[in-house]
Amino acid sequence: MEILLLVIAVIAIILYFLYVALIKRRNTAREALSSIDVQLRKRHDLVPNVVTLAQKFMTHERELLEGITQARNLAQSSYSRDDPAAVAEHLGAEAKLQSGLMHLFAVAENYPELRSAETIQNAQQTVNEVEGHIAAARRFYNSAVTDLNNAVEIWPSSVIAGMVGVKQMPFFEIEDEAVREPVNVADYMK
Amino acid sequence: MADPYENQTPAPWLEGFDTYRAKELDPLLEEMDQSRQRALAKAKQRMMWVAPLVLLAAGLLWVFTQNPMFAVFAGFAGGGLGYAFVKAPFSEHNHLVKRELVTRLARFFDLNFELKPVVTPVGALRRLGLVSSYDRKSAEDRVYGVYEGVEIDLVELHLEQKRRSKNRTYYVTVFRGPVFVFSFPKRFNGRTIIKSDATSVGNWFTGVFSSGERVKLEDPEFERHFEVYGTDQVEARYLLTPSFMEALLGLRQSLKSGVQAAFDGGQLYITANNNQDRFESGGWSQDETMAQQVDRFVQELGVVFRIIDDLNLQSRTGL
Predict the structure, then answer these.
(1) Is B33 a domain residue?
(2) How does pLDDT run across B62-71, given as a tens digit for each residue?
(3) A33: domain range?
(4) Is B240 inside any structural domain?
(5) B319 contacts A42? CB cut-off 8 A
(6) Domain span including residue B76
(7) What CATH number does the domain containing A10 carry?
(8) What residues in A contact B318, CB-CB < 8 Å?
């Protein structure tokens, strides 16, 4: 009887530690998601300035500029961090915004006045740095999600995950091949 | 020294170096080679009469005192003094090497040279856990200046711990090698420390006593050799770009040592405990010619400059 109780106690302790590890990983992933949002907010704050500046020179690119503004609005909308599908949608909207911005800088190549404007040169520097921070936050997030997803998929913690409702989270992937390369706005503004 | 960037196009800061080297350094290297040959001849000449003299003196002491232990002790003491006397010409030659060669070399890169620096970064290195505790320190061969708005400071540091045995006190080297300090205009929010991998148990202890959390990076090669701890996970990854990680791996491989680094405040510190002394022209034998040492130093500087270029932390954007 004592042996049985001992075995049950040992199993209970192991299950508890598995549970703790799982929740820690989920919380780290959430923290990483918050870090991404902090960095993405910097990008969102930059977009209106870049768009306003671009509008002065890029009069024939109304559709593109409107698209960027819409992508920003979509990316800024609130979402549930507990819902993997909502997180995936949010990250997808961000990827579209980044893609739009890259397209804008590529098109800006055709506008020499815009390229030479001092304000846009300052914006270039800031955008470069923001994109560097976003890339770093994405690496942190994807690393945390890898740990979480491994724990959710691999037995025996997968059993605990099923019991307490911890789910896999989506990776922050870059869908657009054009934005897979490290962003250097200066390349587009030469 | 293997250059981690060797496959890249020639760096702009090396432009004109070959001409400068041919005009300013090669004649000096030739002169130094002759100076070393003179020092070697002088040392050999001294050796010819110092060694027999010491042996003779020890033998006479044995005969007159009838105390073999005293004679052996006196022989060792005399031998030590004699060796210092014999090696003295090399010491003079070494000073010429450092004063002239390194000053000229540093001048090409708009850097300065100081043979015996007064101020060292050892306090910061201790605080960051990059070097062990010590009882005695010395520093030499400081090369410093500014590159692309970033202050750089390279110094060779020697730290020793005092030990006691039954009858005597002696010193053991705990760190000897180059220290690189970069001062960026921009301050870092957190602290990122890159420690040499110390196997599972060692890493566990390091983690327990570390002020930051472990930062897991994607590069398996880097992860095999280093353990990273940071107080800001995002900033740590912002600073540890793939090219920076590659540079550290290259430094580790070329310096054959436990390279460690830390970002703190506005500074990046890199240490390499490789028990080597730069710009020593050797004594009786020479492991590396001065020309090879010049090449090695230029490559080291190349890594320094490229780290600055890659990190691109000079600008102030207010973020």
Answers:
(1) yes
(2) 888 887 787 7
(3) 2-189
(4) yes
(5) yes
(6) 12-311
(7) 1.20.1440.20
(8) 126
